[in-house]
Design a protein that fits this description.
- By secondary structure, the protein is an all-alpha fold.
- It has 25 helices and 2 strands.
- The chain has a two-stranded antiparallel ribbon with strand order 1-2.
- The longest helix is centred in the N-terminal third of the chain and has 26 residues, at 186-211.
- The radius of gyration is 36 Å and the shape is flat.
Length: 599
């Protein structure tokens, strides 16, 4: 089936099949009609019904216009004689005949020019046929060695001239494929990508046989990556095909993709070096490049392992001299690191910045050649403040615990992030998970833990119910893990009315905020909270600490909606007290209506 996994990886229609399958199994009988567009996309990928119908409709309009203009005597000469809508079928047959002539005899090589002319025509069906025909022709030529450069004696001058002419025509063909990568139609982009990579495969094998070693044609591959990442027309379908069918399946394509991203992101890269323009140009990286590069790199899930056999797009020659980089784990790790570091040095949008930080500790840090090279990026992110600092915490903590990173004043800056806004940000649950982890060490001084407990209790007074129900269990866990801070709930307040809380709320230095000399009187206030669940939770501090620590995860996802759903779904044990007595009869004594009925 076309949606299955074939010899060379995932086939072209498999992503559409996945979308349809996911929609179908997650829907009900009533909502199953929503999966019709996904099914139609999958069938269109298989059979091209809509594309064929569209081509035929265009051809019908062109025929009608041609006949109308001819009847009026205003018919115009078609630019290419093969682009006439009147003889589409004969043009396609002509392409197949020319292809057969070229493959059967080298004396018909001039027919390549005619096929290339048809490939540039406005006739969609004929052009598509010609592009695929040229792909088969040049694949055969690479296999036969007709396109490689040779240094022969004088009597081979004619053959060298023919070879040079073929290479010029091959470059024109690859330029055509590269322009098709920027086409507005996603199927044409994907077709161009597959043809271009097939040509690159044949080129690499031919060069490898000649050199008796593994050769990756990175010049051609760089042009593909540069076009895909810099084009505004690059579709999501093209990106998904590149990732799923190639980068996640073949180690050599993934290795050189990372290297090319690092090269394209470098300010020293000259995009005009190999295009006939003299003089170095400064590389200007566009927002489009950043967006597409991150979209591709973020979807790559495969990591090269030295314990498994390499999966290569360019086949390894039977006899290979030195061990190539594509089978060395160190080369893959270094390329991965250089690509991500190069991307992080570019101007990033706020959305991409946050997504990188979200995946930093799981998808980037474990596979870096030197994780400490991320220190500057994470440190600057941590100092930005707001949600960016919250997201940088996880990666920074990973470097501190697993890679011995010494980050000065970490807890002071963490303390500064703990303000009333933290209960309203999108990543609130993530922050409190990390906060409990950071404060869980038994080696932390008592004054530091007391400062965080006091700050949490003070913020809980003004926090929404979802914030207070998170802060109270966290304070309980801190006191349970650090018995030296129990004095905060046992210290009695003085009877003097003028006595004040020694805690200095605005003091950034944890040792000088006097939290350990204060008390958690805020918990006494929370025992009278308007929401009964929070009041009940706060009363735990008035009881002996015999209960185990709370699972903080149970309190992180509460919202007004979950509170409302919980309260409305609870069955009441007795009817609520009402201000008035419920009526026992239709007409009560003393009402005006009762006097009227009595008459």
């Amino acid at each position: 089936m076309a949606s299955g996994i074939g010899y060379r990886g995932t086939n072209r229609c498999f992503p559409f099949w996945e979308d349809f399958q996911q929609c179908y199994f997650s829907s009900t009988e009533k909502t199953r009609a929503d999966c019709v567009p996904a099914r139609d996309d999958y069938l269109e990928c298989l059979h091209h019904f809509k594309e064929i119908a569209r081509v035929r409709a265009i051809q019908t309009v062109e025929r009608n216009n041609y006949a109308k203009n001819k009847a009026n005597g205003t018919d115009h000469k078609i630019i290419s004689k093969h682009a006439s809508a009147k003889d589409d079928k004969s043009t396609v047959e002509r392409v197949h005949k020319l292809e057969a002539n070229v493959l059967n005899s080298h004396q018909n090589l001039n027919d390549i020019v005619e096929i290339y002319t048809i490939a540039q025509s406005t006739n969609a069906e004929a052009a598509f046929t010609a592009v695929n025909s040229l792909g088969r022709i040049y694949s055969a030529m690479w296999t036969k060695g007709l396109l490689k450069r040779t240094k022969g004696p004088q009597q081979d001058a004619a053959a060298a001239k023919v070879s040079e002419w073929l290479r010029d025509n091959y470059r024109q063909y690859t330029d055509l494929l590269r322009s098709m990568l920027g086409h507005r139609e996603a199927p044409i982009q994907v077709t161009s990508l597959r043809l271009y990579l097939q040509m690159m495969d044949k080129e690499g094998q031919a060069l490898g046989r000649a050199a008796n070693n593994y050769v990756f044609p990175n010049d051609s591959y760089l042009e593909i990556i540069e076009t895909v990442l810099n084009s505004d027309a690059t579709s999501e379908h093209l990106v998904r095909t590149l990732v799923d069918s190639y980068l996640n399946s073949y180690d050599d394509l993934r290795l050189y993709f990372y290297r090319n991203v690092a090269k394209l992101a470098s300010p020293d890269y000259d995009p005009f070096k190999n295009r006939g323009n003299k003089g170095a140009r400064k590389n200007t990286v566009s927002d489009t490049f950043v967006r597409h590069a991150f979209a591709v790199m973020n979807q790559i899930r495969t990591v090269f392992s030295a314990d498994s056999d390499a999966s290569l797009w360019i086949a390894m020659p039977k006899t290979c001299g030195n061990e190539p980089d594509v089978v060395r784990a160190a080369a893959h790790t270094r390329a991965f690191s250089e690509a991500w570091l190069a991307l992080m040095r570019l101007p990033l949008t706020a959305d991409i910045y946050k997504q990188i930080l979200l995946t930093m500790h799981k998808r980037i840090v474990p596979y870096m050649a030197d994780a400490k090279s991320l220190m500057d990026f994470l440190s600057s992110s941590y100092e930005i403040g707001g949600s960016v600092s919250l997201l940088a915490l996880n990666g920074l903590f990973t470097l501190m615990t697993e890679h011995n990173l010494n980050y000065p004043n970490f807890y002071e800056k963490l303390y500064a992030l703990l303000d009333r806004n933290v209960f309203h940000v999108k990543y609130r649950a993530r922050f409190f998970r990390l906060l409990e982890t950071f404060l869980g060490s038994s080696h932390l001084p008592a004054y530091l833990v007391a400062a965080f407990a006091k700050r949490l209790a003070r913020l809980a007074l003004f926090a929404p119910p979802a914030g207070a129900v998170t802060a109270i269990p966290l304070i309980y866990n801190l006191l349970k893990a650090h018995p030296s801070c129990m004095v905060l709930i046992h210290r009695m307040s003085e009877d003097d009315a003028e006595s004040t809380d020694p805690f200095v709320e605005d003091e950034p230095d944890l040792a000088k905020c006097n939290a350990l000399q204060s008390s958690l009187w805020e918990l006494e206030s929370l025992q009278h909270h308007y929401y009964p669940n929070i009041a009940t939770l706060a009363k735990l501090f008035s009881e002996p600490f015999h209960k185990p620590q709370f699972m903080l995860e149970d309190f992180l996802d509460h919202t007004y909606a979950t509170f409302f759903e919980s309260d409305t779904g609870r069955k009441s044990k007795k009817p609520p007290a009402l201000a008035t007595q419920p009526p026992t009869s239709l007409i009560r004594a003393g009402d005006a209506l009762s006097d009227f009925m009595a008459v």
